[in-house]
Amino acid sequence: MGKRNRVFLFMLLMAFAVVLAACGSSENSSSSKDSKSESGETSLKDKKILVGTEATFAPFEYMDDNGNIVGIDKDIVDAIFTELGMEYEMRHVGWEAVFQQVQNGELDMGASGITITDERKETFDFTEPYFEATQVIVVTEDSPIESAKDLEGKKVSVQINSTGHQAAKKLLGETNPNILAYENLPLAIQEVINGTAQAAIGDNAVVYEYLKNNPNAKLKVIEDDAFEKEYYGFMVKKGNKELLDLLNEGLQKIKENGKLAEITGQELE
Ligand code: ARG
What we know:
By secondary structure, this protein is of the alpha/beta class. It has 10 helices and 15 strands.
C-alpha cells in the first residue's frame, strides 16, 4: 500500500470513528429523552404547578398583611412540594373559580379546605384526606337557636356551593329561599352579625378561628351531631393520575414523618 493510500485509509477510519461516536452519543441522548417522556414524571416534575384557592378561609388560607397567601393549606402544599422537589404557585382565584379552573385546566389543582364528596368525585379526583372537619352553626350570643332543628323557618347564611350550603339544603329543603348563599364564609357570618340571617353554617375550624379573631362580634357556636364528619383533600381534574399520584406520594411522606400533624395539630387515623 502506497503512503497516499495509507493516509487515505487512516482518514477514512477516523471519519468512520467520528460518525460512530456521534451516533452513539445521539442515541444516548435520545434514549434518555425517551425514558423521561415514557414515565411522564419528568415533564410534570419540571413544570410549575398552579394551585388555586379562596383565601378568606383562615386558618387554612388567608392573606397576610403583605398580600401573601398563608395558612395551613399553604404550609401543607409547601411541605408536599418540598418533598417532591417540585415548584408551585398558589393563586387566590375565588371559591367557585377553583372548581371551574381546575376543570378547564387553567389550574392544576385546588387546595382550599375542599371536602371530599361523592358529588365532587364525579368531576374531580382527590388525594387521600389530610384533615377531618365538620359543619357547625354560628349564631349571636343572645340567640334562642340551640340546635340544627331550630333552624327551621330561620334565615341561614352559607358559603355558596360549600358543604355548609349542602347541609343547609338538607335541613331546610333544596330550594328554600331562607338559605342565603354568599361568595365566602366571612360574608355569610357578617350577615348574622348585622341581623340579615339568624344563623350561618360553616366549617368548624374556620368558624372558631373567626370568633377568635373577632371577639367583639358577640357570636357563639353550636355543634350538632346532625352534621357528618368531612375530610379535606387536594383536588385535581378527573383523570390527572400523574399529579394525583405525586401529591399522594408527598402527602404520605409528610404523614409518616409527622410534618402533617405538626402543621394541622391533628392526628388522622
Ligand atoms: N369544606 C367546605 C367545602 O369543601 C368549605 C371549603 C371552603 N374553602 C374556602 N377556601 N373558602 O365545601
